[in-house]
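Quick sanity check, Glycine/D-amino acid oxidase:
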Amino acid sequence: MDLHSGLPYWIVKNKLFDYFNPLRAPYTVDVAIIGSGITGSLVAHELCEAGIPCAVFDKRTIATGSTAASTSQLQYEIDTPLCKMVDTVGMDMAVKAYHASLQSITDIEKVFDITRVRPDFRRVSSIFLASDRGGLRLLEREYQIRKKQDLPVDFLDADALFADHRIDGHGALKNSEAAQMDCYKAATGLLKYHLKKSGLTLFSHTDIVDYGEKPNGYELLTRDGIRISCKYVVIAAGFEAGRFLPRQVMNLISTYALVSQPVEPSLLWPERSLIWETASPYFYMRTTLDNRMMIGGEDVSFRNPERRDRLLRWKIKRLEKKFKEIYPEIPFAVDMAWCGTFSSTADGLPYIGLWPGRKRMFFALGYGGNGITFSMIAAQLIKNKLKGIKDDRDNVFGFKRTGRI
């Protein structure tokens, strides 16, 4: 399936990692990682750093699936507000999820410091706008629970929002713990680093179509009939992980994004914050290092790639209109536009770990708007499990958390 269409900015901005290495003979490895995007690359990094032999497999050119279409925002806030999440998974689990997401941003930053990969990572503030009066009431509740649980947050009333950020709105929550980066550059950079430093093996254009469980691991089968023997499998293939899941655990969503032509830096909004809103689906915006504006949203339920793509022109106009409602004085001329498909879950949390009853197949499914921070958590959890290290986050992000699996 086509995971995106149009012209994703990262593929234009960066030189394509044109790596061609299809699997041509039977292969044996301790850990087979399926998926070469940001999730697979972070898993590979953690395993390589821990000295665990692994190999990465992808049916496409490296990191050209959902990662190429990501707008690459890192926030500790999860799509489901904390004040609502507690009603679904309970206070303890919801708070742990939020704190884990907060820590994940710092952990991602440390990965780039260690590897010297430079994916345009930059710390920025996050502005969570009230879309209407109902949204303002939600933010008031959210502010109280975050403060009580020692999460970084400030409340901006309408006057402060306009004075500090030039936005004429009802109010907002603000924190300074967010970040942004180039997701494609990060994924390819980490894989290149470990190809050279750790002897990581990377197979492109290798489509794994079937698998069989063995007493000591798994046997995977490629579309070309080649077999891969491994002790463990890590599924880091996003919503395409469906063929490995006993049943569907996610909802498929079509989303849309635009990037503007460059503007003078003085025209951009204060602090170049990540900005998003309480409406559902929500609109969001960020800047790039070359002084462009990247905006997105207008999510709809995914039916098929053709329907998703047909809506692109109309969604461009809708997104432009929403941007103008927030910053009417900033010129926004569309340079590139694209649409993609991602997944969400009922409680807003990802699914990470072993499916109940399977001892050697791990899932790293960072579903939702915070896929990158969830990917870091998944990489750490899987490494810890393989090393025999207890991790309290298992219960928060695992398949058993809802009691329905």
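Posting the structure with no commentary besides this: The chain has a mean pLDDT of 92.
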